[in-house]
Design a protein that fits this description.
This protein has 266 residues and is α/β, with parallel strands linked by helices. The chain has helices spanning 45-51, 76-89, 102-113, 132-147, 150-161, 164-170, 174-179, 186-195, 227-235, 249-252, 256-265; strands spanning 5-11, 14-21, 26-31, 59-64, 95-100, 118-124, 212-217, 238-242. Strands 1-2-4-3-5-6-7-8 form an eight-stranded mixed sheet, sandwiched between helices.
Length: 266
């Protein structure tokens, strides 16, 4: 589907899986969120290509997993540095970048510390500094993981992520979805979850000079309702907040990808 291919890139002493699809002449790098702590990227090529099919004609779309053997003290800045190396090893000289949730944190550091790699930047449902909402969320997840296991933690994350309307329709399916990730590596998830609390870019955001679009959800129970607007105020950039959606705005909003596409191709 859409020429989706999977492979592994080597950089320095590390390696990471990647997915690439699309026929366009411009590179677009997708940076997912903490879902990469629950499910590895390998085997998701067709799913990604379908979800982001709107971009397949005009872009060559890339998505990189985090390195194998993540250290327990990894930070989102470390993840951004890894991504920069992976992009260059894959032959990407410059790309548009879409980062959602934790991926948006990584994207900020990528644009700040490796600006030559980023043409345009889209930050979805993410933050630039800690707040009580995200701190409480991560603490709850780590506690659930330790006391009740991966499935219980995953169920809680789904309920915080999706809107009440979505949950009313798909609530019956969530236990099956949680079953699919219950064998995820708890150490890898813990490292990535703790990394969410290392994002501190607020005072540096004015350094960014590339075009930026910020998208968020007013009902966000993971990064908080005001996180996107905090970023946009620092940047003075375009921002849209979905008033009736939360952290899953990038999945639930029917026009999310269209907004991103219009911004990137303008």
């Amino acid at each position: 589907m859409f020429n989706a291919k999977e492979g592994k890139v080597q950089y320095g002493n590390a390696s990471a899986d990647y997915v690439v699809f699309g026929k366009g002449s411009r590179d677009l790098v997708l940076i997912p969120g903490l879902v990469l702590g629950l499910k590895r990227l390998r085997g998701t090529g067709r799913q990604l290509a379908f979800s982001y099919r709107l971009f397949a004609k005009d872009f060559r779309v890339w998505c990189f997993d985090h390195r194998d053997g993540l250290p327990q003290d990894v930070t989102v800045k470390d993840l951004a540095d890894d991504l920069a190396e992976a992009m260059q090893a894959a032959g990407i000289r410059q790309a548009d970048v879409l980062g959602v949730s934790q991926g948006g944190m990584v994207a900020q550091y990528l644009a700040l510390d490796h600006p030559q790699l980023v043409r345009k930047l889209v930050l979805g449902v993410t933050l630039c500094e800690n707040n009580p909402v995200v701190e409480g969320c991560i603490a709850d997840w780590l506690s659930l993981l330790e006391t009740k296991g991966m499935k219980a933690m995953a169920l809680d994350s789904f309920k915080r992520t999706y809107s009440d309307k979505y949950l009313a329709t798909w609530n019956f399916f969530l236990p099956f979805l949680a079953d699919s990730v219950k064998k995820a590596d708890p150490q890898r998830f813990t490292a990535l979850a703790k990394a969410c609390l290392t994002c501190d870019t607020k005072d540096r955001l004015p350094e960014l000079t590339c075009p930026i679009l910020v998208l968020g959800g007013r009902l966000d129970k993971i990064v908080g309702p005001d996180a996107s607007e905090t970023i946009a105020r620092q940047l003075g950039c375009e921002c849209h907040v979905y008033e009736d959606l939360g952290h899953s705005a990038y999945e639930e909003a029917k026009d999310f990808n269209k907004r991103v596409y219009r911004f990137l191709t303008a």
